[in-house]
Amino acid sequence: MNSSTITSIEDLKPYDNDIVVNFQVIEQLSVKEIRKGHDAVHKVATFKIADATGSIRLTVWNEAIDKIDIGQTYELNKGNVNVFQDHAQLSAGKNGQIKPCDVKFHILNQENNISEQKVVKEKRQSSRRSPKFQKKRYNEEEDTFSAEVNKKYLWAEKR
After folding, report:
1. Residue 87: how many CA atoms within 13 Å on its side-chain side?
2. In CATH, what number does 9-116 get?
């Protein structure tokens, strides 16, 4: 996506990245500490945000949490839409920036909550698991193993 174009919340799609969104903070939903490794402890907070078109959860990490105030409007640059527990949520990620802005929303649409919609993940198959590319190890017609398997068996037998 082009990072100079402002995207409305209703137009956000799972796995979108490099997006710009203007929003107002409605409420803080949670704050947790997450332990990574032996010594690293990170804080993660989830906020409910909205604009005139819809609402979504926003995930913010560490020191950025203290920079967000309920009722204020912000602009997120270089944000992305992640999927966590089958639900979309907006995130600044490593490269994103959240800064206050002067946009005023006359109406906040909280009914169209993008985070409440379940995201159906497409099953990703590697070429190894795809039946089209799978090596045939057993020949049902001849009731014998393939030449590749026989070659390995003969090699092991000689040892």
Report:
1. 12
2. 2.40.50.140
